[in-house]
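Entry 0007
Protein: Failed axon connections homolog
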Amino acid sequence: VILHQHPPGPTIPGFLPNSLKLETYLRMVKIPYENFYESKLGSSKEKVPFIEYQGDKVQDTNFCIKYLNKKFNVDPDAHLSAEQKAMCHAIQAMAEENTYWSLAYYRWVDNYQETKKYYSNLAPVYKDLRPKLDQNKCIKCMQAHGIGKHTKEEIYAIAEEDLRAMSALLGEKEFFMDSEPCTLDCTMFGLLACFVYGTEESPQNKLIREELKNLADFCDRMKLNYWLDW
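Output (structure tokens):
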């Protein structure tokens, strides 16, 4: 399997939550893979991450995981009940369709000058242009989503409410559903690790480190289980 994604960030191997989600899944189910670091130009939908396998190209991490489950006859959710699978679906939707946008806001609006450093290895002509284009695209997406119409304080309040809900859902369990990890844990690790390891000055990081320590412990646990080469 070839995993196409952006190059790693300075403190995190997957700059995007979905990249880290998909790569963690591949490690969890022990599917051999290789990383191919690139821009968005390699994908017909202009969206990374995506995978290639035996001539097939699959975009969107959820479709990638379904495809790989079938191709390799694996299912990290096989041990879950129907109710647990429904809960996973709802929690994933909250993380990817709501909480994620507070990360995007922090990176592309509130902390843009730091985010620009991620592009420092580009050719001089692209070093300023590319991050500005990506920033403009992200701001447009936030406006279309609706979260971009809120104030900074409101966006971080939304994130806090989500993170507190995630902490309550995790509780004292090792993983979000039980003592055995599942696909949801890859999703949650992808997002939460970006806060814990990738945005150390963010309000979300401070909240997790100071009050929602079980989320930080969860990230450390996933990192220990699947990312010894971090």
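Curator remark: The longest helix spans residues 82-110. The two ends are 20 Å apart (CA to CA).
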